[in-house]
Amino acid sequence: MSLVYKLIILALIGALAAPFIIKKPDGTPMMTLKQFMPDASKSIDQLKSIGKTETQLYRWQDEKGNWQYSDTPHDSAQGEKFQVQATINSMKTIELPEGFGEPKKKERFDPTDDSGVSLPITTAPLDKVPEMLENIEGIQQKFDARQQQLDAATR
To answer: Within a 13 Å sphere around the CA of 103, how many CA atoms are in the beta-carbon half?
Structure first.
């Protein structure tokens, strides 16, 4: 075995032993053998007790048709009683305002709507539109000429 492997193994052993050797401020080791290897009999007892506890619960439907669960019976006679075999987490339900979570409808501008509210379809002044169209035609002509030059150069 080479020296490098021996040093690596020595470093691993040192890393595993360090918590047992290094002391806390009060002088006790950071970890004891008892903490490293806890009593297995307690762990086995805890595992056996999982799922053995039974909880008595009640359920009923509220005015909105939502199911409500509680560990105490509800005032109405409609509640059902049932057993739960495991530990559960519960939290109180809250009432949400009407319309919460519903998508909002976006109103679109309708130029044919005769409600008195009118928005301009364009922000350009109408007397400038012919000049703008001429500029667009000039730009298109430049693009066409450039395309012809590119076609001629790649042939």
So the answer is: 3
